[in-house]
Specification:
- By secondary structure, this protein is an alpha+beta fold.
- It has three domains: 49 residues; 77 residues, ANL, C-terminal domain (GMP Synthetase, Chain A, domain 3), CATH 3.30.300.30; 37 residues, no CATH class.
- 43% of the residues lie in helices and 29% in strands.
- The strands form four sheets. A three-stranded mixed sheet has the order 1-8-9. A two-stranded antiparallel sheet has the order 2-7. It has a two-stranded antiparallel ribbon with strand order 3-4.
- Strand 8, helix 4 and strand 9 form a beta-alpha-beta unit.
């Protein structure tokens, strides 16, 4: 009950303040709130720029698939009996970037409970600004390959194409399809 009385007394005081001063106070409070929001966004924005993404960066998958297709097409054209060929590569995942980090782990155990925590911090190089140290990049995963070639009706040629693609890309022969090309154009 005492709390309600205190609120009523504050409202009565607010009503005694002239209208112009109320507007000024409300404008000042709004301005301080806006400045606070802008400052908090600018500080959090700087933090996001210095921290690397969670070990993954997006890469243009279509460009990567095109690069692999072109290289395969060049190699397969050199295989005896293949003739003209077209290659299609499907990509399953994006490129991964792995950054150097230091791990710190702690574990505590009590009578009835155990807890563990781990903290990863990225190793940073400060030449032109803070940048994480890149340890390695893992290429996107190739899901499958289709090869359309003139010589695919010959078993030896088809087997040679499958072996080249399998060895070159490190995928299983189950994910490689080799077919004879028809007349088009």
């Amino acid at each position: 009950m005492a709390e309600k009385r205190a609120v009523w007394e504050k409202l009565k005081l607010w009503e005694k303040v002239p209208q112009q001063k109320r507007v000024k106070v409300l404008l000042l409070v709004g301005l301080v709130a806006i400045i606070g929001i802008v400052l908090s966004e600018s500080f959090s924005g700087d933090k996001d720029k210095t921290e690397p993404e969670q070990t993954k960066q997006s890469v243009d998958l279509e460009a990567y698939a095109d690069k692999v297709e072109n290289r395969l097409q060049q190699i397969l054209a050199c295989v005896d009996g293949v003739g003209k060929c077209e290659v299609m590569v499907t990509v399953d995942s994006s490129q991964e970037s792995v950054y150097s980090s230091e791990s710190e782990s702690q574990s505590q155990s009590g009578e009835n409970a155990a807890s563990a925590s781990q903290k990863n911090t990225y190793v940073i190089v400060d030449d032109d600004g803070e940048k994480p140290i890149l340890e390695k990049e893992i290429e996107p995963k190739i899901r499958g390959v289709i090869v359309v070639c003139e010589g695919a009706d010959q078993v030896e040629v088809r087997e040679a194409v499958i072996e080249c693609v399998r060895a070159g890309l490190g995928i299983t022969s189950a994910n490689i399809s080799v077919v004879k090309g028809g007349k088009h154009g």
